[in-house]
Specification:
about 450 residues, alpha/beta, Rossmann fold, 3 domains, 6-stranded parallel β-sheet, elongated, binds uridine-5'-diphosphate-glucuronic acid
Length: about 450
């Protein structure tokens, strides 16, 4: 099938490359000239493991190309995907749909013959209907269907998530559109991936409900972690103890500094606003949003307490800045709250991140950026671990101890064992587990 993908962000680029890998002819279109030029030169504008090779293979096979011009591919396309950004609207937190609606207008201008227009961007309930009206108004005689097909891939595991998803959700209102969608996802049908066919509004809501539920799960375990600290319990064991119950499940029960990223913060807020405006407020999600915001702001207090109550003239080594490992994405990362709060408390900051430093430099000022973890620790008063990159999981603890002025580690991701840290002579503070003093 011939596919046009509008938008070459995470979702657009990964979906485009994976559809090409399924054997379809895909053209990815973007207005950003420098992005398209980079892609045409084989450069990938985002950090995503495996994506460069996947794009290169499919370009070489002639199934994947990039273009600035929607008019060149849209008239021939069987399906046109809208995968543009839906950021939080400044001021009110509603999803900003201006890019989606602009794309719909352009699709109306260029499509030809029966076309399935698919919204892959995360869009609030009713957006598919509005896309349909925009196209219908511009082209009353056009032959098309509008389908919702939300994407559930995670940054850092995007290709695997796209190609081996837990499920595919398709919100389609007619049989013709369903047939096209079935054909597009044929390799997944053959793998027996569950494909949930439903109506458009339900499909749109499934995406928000999924992200809000996961954000709620994380927030729940974060609150349990706080309680564990006050009663001498261990949150990892609580997570295991409840997660083994098949009704609860073990995933997304890692306590930490609060969720971040380009999706959960914006989507939970958008769901709250949609629900309020439809007079069915989601009080649980409202609480999740407030608790998570506060949690991120309060994380720095743990570092201050671990350093004896004051950071005046102290140097703090920060390991990890991105919102999670295997991405260079800094959007809504807990580090954006934690680092400035440490600076306000008087600390000098040295920091290292394996992929996020370029983005971080735009957002976090007055920091000494280092080349690796050990350089960062050299002469610092304490280390705080914000992102659980693999390369921080097996640090040489003797070296850590000898580099730090005092052997204090605040681990906001629980990647070390408190008893072992005590044995090694480190004062170790983590989340939801008893702190360990050096032996
Ligand atoms: C999330 C969803 O997991 C994807 O299914 C969805 O497609 C995507 O949003 C989206 O809507 O586009 P992503 O933002 O890439 O994916 O990252 P996650 O792996 O879900 O992590 C989000 C945040 O939650 C991170 O800050 C992470 O550190 C935090 N988290 C996650 C925890 O604190 N604890 C956990 O147990 C899991």
């Amino acid at each position: 099938m011939r596919v046009t993908m509008i938008g070459t962000g995470y979702v657009g680029l990964v979906s485009g490359a994976c559809f090409a890998d399924f054997g379809h002819d895909v053209v990815c279109v973007d207005k950003d000239k420098s992005k398209i030029e980079k892609l045409e030169n084989g450069e990938i504008p985002i950090f995503e493991p495996g994506l460069e090779a996947l794009v290169a293979e499919n370009v070489k096979a002639g199934r994947l190309s990039f273009s600035l011009d929607l008019a060149a591919s849209a008239p021939e396309a069987h399906a046109i995907f809208i995968a543009v950004g839906t950021p939080s609207r400044r001021g009110d937190g509603f999803a900003d749909l201006s890019y989606v609606y602009k794309a719909a207008e352009e699709v109306a201008e260029h499509m030809n013959g029966y076309t399935v227009v698919v919204t892959k961007s995360t869009v609030p309930v009713g957006t598919g209907g509005e896309v349909e009206s925009i196209i219908r108004r511009a082209r009353p005689d056009a032959d098309f269907s509008v389908v919702s097909n939300p994407e559930f891939l995670r940054e850092g595991a995007a290709i695997e998530d796209f190609k081996r998803p837990d499920r595919v959700v398709v919100g389609a209102e007619d049989e013709r559109a369903k047939k096209v969608m079935r054909e597009l996802y044929r390799p997944l049908f053959l793998n027996e991936t569950p494909i949930v066919f439903t109506n458009r509004a339900t499909s749109e809501l499934i995406k928000y409900a999924a992200n809000a539920f996961l954000a709620t799960k994380i927030t729940f375990i974060n609150e349990m972690a706080d309680l564990c600290e006050n009663v001498g319990a261990n949150v990892q064991e609580v997570a295991r103890g409840i997660g083994l119950d098949g009704r609860i499940g073990p995933k997304f029960l890692h306590a930490g500094p609060g969720y971040g990223g380009s999706c959960f913060p914006k989507d939970t807020l958008a769901l709250v606003r949609t629900a309020q405006s439809h007079e069915a407020p989601t009080k649980i999600v409202e609480a999740v949003v407030a608790i998570n915001d506060e949690r991120k702001r309060k994380m720095a207090d743990r570092v201050i307490a671990a350093c004896g109550g004051s950071l005046e003239n102290k140097t703090i080594a920060v390991l990890g800045l991105t919102f999670k490992p295997n991405t260079d994405d800094m959007r809504d990362s807990p580090s954006l709250d934690i680092v400035p709060a440490l600076q306000t408390a008087g600390a000098n900051i040295r920091a290292f991140d394996p992929a996020g430093v370029n983005e971080a430099k735009e957002l976090l000022r007055d920091i000494e950026y280092c080349e690796g973890p050990y350089e960062t620790l050299d002469g610092a008063d304490a280390v705080v671990l914000i992102t659980e990159w693999d390369e921080f999981r097996a640090l040489d603890l003797e070296r850590v101890k000898s580099l730090l002025k005092s052997p204090v580690m605040v681990d906001l991701r629980n990647i070390y064992n408190p008893a072992e840290m005590a044995e090694r002579g480190l004062e170790y503070h983590s989340i939801g587990r008893p702190a360990s003093k050096k032996a």
